[in-house]
Amino acid sequence: MTSFLLLNGPNLNLLGTREPGIYGTATLEDIVGEAKAYAAARGAELADFQSNAEGDLINALHAARGRHECVILNPGAYTHTSVALMDAIVATGLPVVEVHLSNIHARESFRRDSLISPVAVGVIAGFGAFGYLMAIDAGLNHLKAAK
Ligand code: DQA
After folding, report:
1. How far apart, in whole angstroms, are the C-alpha atoms of residue 119 and residue 115?
2. Mutate to test the pocket of ligand 1, among 82, 101, 105, 124 (most ligand atoms within 8 A of CB)
Protein backbone atom coordinates (compact mmCIF):
# COMPACT_ATOMS: atom_id res chain seq x y z
CA MET A 1 0.00 0.00 0.00
CA THR A 2 1.36 3.42 -0.90
CA SER A 3 2.20 5.41 2.18
CA PHE A 4 2.35 9.20 2.27
CA LEU A 5 3.85 11.43 4.91
CA LEU A 6 2.11 14.79 5.17
CA LEU A 7 4.52 17.31 6.70
CA ASN A 8 3.42 20.78 7.76
CA GLY A 9 5.83 23.46 8.90
CA PRO A 10 5.70 26.51 11.15
CA ASN A 11 2.49 28.27 12.12
CA LEU A 12 0.31 25.80 10.24
CA ASN A 13 -0.85 24.44 13.61
CA LEU A 14 -2.77 27.73 13.88
CA LEU A 15 -4.81 27.18 10.73
CA GLY A 16 -8.45 28.04 11.24
CA THR A 17 -7.65 31.22 13.15
CA ARG A 18 -4.44 32.31 11.36
CA GLU A 19 -5.20 34.97 8.74
CA PRO A 20 -8.35 33.15 7.55
CA GLY A 21 -8.71 35.55 4.62
CA ILE A 22 -5.47 34.09 3.23
CA TYR A 23 -5.35 30.57 4.62
CA GLY A 24 -9.04 29.69 5.02
CA THR A 25 -11.06 28.59 8.02
CA ALA A 26 -10.26 24.86 8.05
CA THR A 27 -8.09 23.75 10.96
CA LEU A 28 -5.04 21.57 10.43
CA GLU A 29 -7.00 18.74 12.05
CA ASP A 30 -9.79 19.21 9.46
CA ILE A 31 -7.26 19.20 6.64
CA VAL A 32 -5.38 16.14 7.88
CA GLY A 33 -8.64 14.24 8.48
CA GLU A 34 -9.82 14.98 4.96
CA ALA A 35 -6.45 14.05 3.46
CA LYS A 36 -6.42 10.72 5.32
CA ALA A 37 -9.92 9.88 4.07
CA TYR A 38 -9.01 10.93 0.52
CA ALA A 39 -5.87 8.78 0.57
CA ALA A 40 -7.77 5.80 2.02
CA ALA A 41 -10.40 6.07 -0.74
CA ARG A 42 -7.52 5.67 -3.20
CA GLY A 43 -6.05 2.65 -1.44
CA ALA A 44 -3.23 4.64 0.15
CA GLU A 45 -2.40 5.59 3.72
CA LEU A 46 -1.27 8.91 5.07
CA ALA A 47 0.63 9.75 8.24
CA ASP A 48 1.05 13.32 9.34
CA PHE A 49 3.42 15.49 11.34
CA GLN A 50 3.53 19.22 12.05
CA SER A 51 6.31 21.15 13.68
CA ASN A 52 7.35 24.74 14.14
CA ALA A 53 10.99 23.64 14.39
CA GLU A 54 13.15 23.27 11.28
CA GLY A 55 15.24 20.45 12.78
CA ASP A 56 12.16 18.40 13.64
CA LEU A 57 10.95 18.64 10.05
CA ILE A 58 14.38 17.51 8.84
CA ASN A 59 14.36 14.59 11.31
CA ALA A 60 10.90 13.62 10.09
CA LEU A 61 12.17 13.57 6.51
CA HIS A 62 15.10 11.36 7.51
CA ALA A 63 12.79 9.00 9.39
CA ALA A 64 10.45 8.79 6.37
CA ARG A 65 13.05 6.80 4.40
CA GLY A 66 11.90 3.22 4.02
CA ARG A 67 8.56 4.02 5.68
CA HIS A 68 6.84 6.29 3.18
CA GLU A 69 7.00 6.42 -0.60
CA CYS A 70 6.07 10.06 -0.99
CA VAL A 71 6.10 13.23 1.11
CA ILE A 72 3.57 16.04 0.84
CA LEU A 73 5.23 19.11 2.32
CA ASN A 74 3.98 22.55 3.21
CA PRO A 75 7.19 24.07 4.57
CA GLY A 76 5.48 27.32 5.66
CA ALA A 77 7.96 30.18 5.87
CA TYR A 78 10.89 27.73 5.69
CA THR A 79 9.99 27.53 2.00
CA HIS A 80 11.79 30.80 1.52
CA THR A 81 14.73 30.32 3.88
CA SER A 82 15.71 26.73 4.54
CA VAL A 83 18.74 25.38 2.72
CA ALA A 84 18.77 22.65 5.38
CA LEU A 85 15.28 21.45 4.44
CA MET A 86 16.21 21.53 0.77
CA ASP A 87 19.35 19.48 1.48
CA ALA A 88 17.33 16.97 3.50
CA ILE A 89 14.99 16.38 0.57
CA VAL A 90 17.94 15.73 -1.73
CA ALA A 91 19.67 13.56 0.89
CA THR A 92 16.66 11.31 1.45
CA GLY A 93 15.83 11.03 -2.25
CA LEU A 94 12.13 10.92 -1.40
CA PRO A 95 9.73 12.44 -3.91
CA VAL A 96 8.24 15.59 -2.40
CA VAL A 97 5.09 17.38 -3.54
CA GLU A 98 5.30 20.98 -2.30
CA VAL A 99 1.99 22.49 -1.24
CA HIS A 100 0.96 26.02 -0.31
CA LEU A 101 -2.51 27.05 0.67
CA SER A 102 -2.03 30.52 -0.75
CA ASN A 103 -0.72 31.51 -4.16
CA ILE A 104 2.78 32.50 -3.08
CA HIS A 105 3.33 34.22 -6.44
CA ALA A 106 0.47 36.65 -5.86
CA ARG A 107 1.72 37.90 -2.48
CA GLU A 108 4.78 39.73 -1.15
CA SER A 109 7.81 39.41 -3.42
CA PHE A 110 9.85 37.49 -0.79
CA ARG A 111 7.30 34.65 -0.99
CA ARG A 112 7.90 34.12 -4.70
CA ASP A 113 11.21 32.37 -4.14
CA SER A 114 11.08 28.81 -2.90
CA LEU A 115 14.26 26.94 -2.02
CA ILE A 116 12.16 23.78 -2.01
CA SER A 117 10.66 23.95 -5.52
CA PRO A 118 13.90 23.06 -7.39
CA VAL A 119 14.10 19.76 -5.49
CA ALA A 120 10.36 18.99 -5.40
CA VAL A 121 8.55 16.82 -7.94
CA GLY A 122 6.11 19.68 -8.38
CA VAL A 123 4.29 22.50 -6.63
CA ILE A 124 0.62 23.14 -5.86
CA ALA A 125 -0.19 26.63 -4.63
CA GLY A 126 -3.25 28.81 -4.29
CA PHE A 127 -6.04 26.24 -3.99
CA GLY A 128 -6.39 26.29 -0.22
CA ALA A 129 -6.94 23.03 1.62
CA PHE A 130 -7.96 21.35 -1.65
CA GLY A 131 -4.28 21.56 -2.64
CA TYR A 132 -3.45 18.77 -0.18
CA LEU A 133 -5.94 16.48 -1.93
CA MET A 134 -4.50 17.44 -5.31
CA ALA A 135 -1.07 16.56 -3.91
CA ILE A 136 -2.24 13.03 -3.08
CA ASP A 137 -3.37 12.48 -6.68
CA ALA A 138 -0.17 14.09 -7.97
CA GLY A 139 1.96 11.87 -5.74
CA LEU A 140 0.13 8.69 -6.74
CA ASN A 141 0.43 9.57 -10.40
CA HIS A 142 4.12 10.38 -10.00
CA LEU A 143 4.83 7.07 -8.25
CA LYS A 144 2.94 5.16 -10.94
CA ALA A 145 4.86 6.91 -13.72
CA ALA A 146 8.20 6.38 -11.95
CA LYS A 147 7.72 2.59 -11.69
C1 DQA B 1 2.42 29.04 3.07
C2 DQA B 1 3.03 30.26 2.37
C3 DQA B 1 4.26 30.76 3.10
O4 DQA B 1 4.79 31.90 2.46
C5 DQA B 1 3.90 31.14 4.53
O6 DQA B 1 5.06 31.53 5.22
C7 DQA B 1 3.17 30.07 5.25
C8 DQA B 1 2.14 29.31 4.53
C9 DQA B 1 1.07 28.62 2.42
O10 DQA B 1 0.63 27.51 2.72
O11 DQA B 1 0.47 29.39 1.67
O12 DQA B 1 3.37 29.84 6.44
O13 DQA B 1 3.32 27.94 2.94
Report:
1. 8
2. 101
